[in-house]
Amino acid sequence: MDRRVEPGDEGVEVSEAPFWKTKSLAEMTKREFERVCDGCARCCLSKIEDADTGIVHYTDVACKLLDTDACRCRDYGHRRRRVPDCLKITPRTAKTWTWLPPTCGYRLLAEGKPLYWWHPLVSGDPETVHIAGVSVRGRTAGSEEDFSDDEMAHRLVTWPRQLPPGARGRKPPRKRSSPRKRGLRTKGSGFPLARE
Ligand code: SF4
Ligand code: SF4
Fold first, then answer.
1. Is residue 26 a contact partner of residue 110, using CB atoms and an 8 Å limit?
2. Which of 106, 144, 146, 149 is the most exposed place for a label (fewest CB within 10 A)?
3. What is the value of pTM for the model shown?
């Protein structure tokens, strides 16, 4: 591990490596543990458990407290009281809840994997989780209060258990250079040709 002494810290060793690389989930402070959440809100989608198989299926229906644009809980401090089945992630459950999205920061760290480039801790930007297409922004059908149980059963989706193509890798994908305009124009028209 790289170490250095900061001005004013004479005699005190300071780690340069970020906490999520040096500490286990169990060793993190409460604030550090909270910051492992990438803000995707995938876990705030309603889920249906198959009584026979125990398999948990995601729906694209949001919890009634979820702000689906900000991807934030509207009453995080009182969420357990207002939504009794809102589950609490702990270092132990991060390992055992196999239904957690493969993108979930807690799941990744619990499995000894690195965080992706779009995780706000890595990018320094809370928007990258949306830019990478990982969050639920723009992908929900509505609030659970607007759907009956029967209707909910028709809202099953698989994308919360998948990694979007733009989210792969540990660095942002390189931008493709734009196509050469010369090849996309009709001779002399000055307008781009429509493409199928
Ligand atoms: S799936 Fe994981 S990273 Fe995403 S909001 Fe839920 S706890 Fe946070
Ligand atoms: S109560 Fe809040 S944290 Fe819990 S599932 Fe609903 S929106 Fe998410």
1. no
2. 149
3. 0.82
